[in-house]
Request: fold
Amino acid sequence: MQTLPTYKSQSLDIPFQLPERRIRRARPRINGQVWIAGISRIKKVAGGIALPLVFPALLLLFWWIASTWAWIPENILPRPITVVHTFGDLVSGGDLATNLGASLRRVAEGSALGVTLGLALGVALGFSPTVESWIGPSFRMIAQIPSIALIPLLIMVLGIDDRLKLFIMVKACVIPLAFTTADGIRNIPAQYLEVGRVFRLSRWTLIRRIILPGALPSIFSGVRQGLAHVWVSLVAVEVLASADGIGYLMTWGRQIFQLDVVLVCVGVIGVIGFIFDFGLRKLESGLLRWRGIGN
Amino acid sequence: MDRLFHHFRWRGFVLPLAFLAFWWLATTYHWVSSSVLVPFGQLYQSALDPEVSRSLFVGLEASFTRLLEGSALGISLGLVLGVGLGLSRTFDRMIGPSFHAARQVAIFAWIPLLTAWFGNGDICKVVFVALAAFYPVVMGTYEGIRSVPIQYLEVGRVLCFSRVRMLRRIILPSAAPSIVTALQLSLIFSWFAAIGAEYVIGKMSNGIGSVVMAAQDNLRPDILLLGVILISLVGILMNKILRQIPRYLFRWRDA
Reply:
């Protein structure tokens, strides 16, 4: 991240601080000063690690105190240690693996289909003004209605089994992906397309060699958004209507009033969301490295 | 006439009209059961039924009230946190990672926990709507403040602005477009979050989502369809109106 100077210092002598500091560094250090410099570095590193942990630690402390001294009843706020034990039980009992497996299998199916359709639609919309003029307006209309709002209607039409989940995941993925892909293609510099036209590339070669590489950064951010939406919407459907999956495990825990199960599920859902986001960001920066350091 | 035909973008209307025609044919010739796809006539009849329309509009009003309460709460908390994270690096390093960790949890995963803590009533839904409104506001405010051009800050520094003046005269105006976009996003989010919460939490309460869920249980596909259409229309309308606001507010930028 680019570092901005903080607005805090109001002194006007900021430009003059730099040479002064350099002079101090250049002076030969005697033992004591090296020692002090070492400490300050340790302090800095420790601050970088410790500072983010302050808030979670306080929260945990409060949670621990509140549940140990029973300010809040056990069934409303289970103890931290109970949650850890429940996590162990769910893992060793296989409940977590079964349900998480069911959810992840759905995510894999939904994102495979969603990414394929979204890319196809995005390329078509971005590449061809004719396609855009026929289906663009309807698509933009549908895009404004999240699938969450349509769930009762979809349950009526598709039932509550896997077809419903697949439909909702695919819709959640296609919309951001198709939008960003189409935008990315429209924003390709005209010169690149002219090069292709000069070489009389066929339409397919033009798409493969110029349009897709040119739109790749937008496509990637679209895929990342699309997959994040897949996960969020799958959890929503599973909470609402499902017989297995991590969302179901959570509602089941809620129904028998075992909030430790619910808390474990919230944690697992968060971790999976983080892995998706982090992994895709890494993949994105790795695959787009050819674009140079500037990007 | 020919020119009019060319200027009128008729192509965009073909697909929706084809869909409606298919619907009409399917219900007229009974390709699908009428409990799935309601005939137009029946839909029109029930829309005129005072009982039905009353329940829908009462529900709409209740949902909208909750939307306003929840988003007011979420937006004000979000603004405070966003400004804090944007202004202070220490605060950002302290709270930022926790905030981003919490953001990774899919929002509907909080509902079972919230129903346990706040009951099935209004409070739970308001808290959920507030949560949905909260995230985009924090993100937008944070991004807006972080991307204030350095030159602007330097001008403030040269003029020896006090902290408050710096915030009021330079940072907030410069971050305003980003913040307004975030507010727009968070209101749309909260509308659908309010509806989603009503779907999940169920039939006991008022609100248009509960009316729809009750219609599903009572096998009234006409009410269900009308409800979903109404919910979607409100969402689209909100989107349209909210999009106009920044255009109006930031006229001075283009000058």
Observations:
- Chain B has a mean pLDDT of 86.
- Residues 38-243 of chain B form a domain with the MetI-like fold fold (CATH 1.10.3720.10).
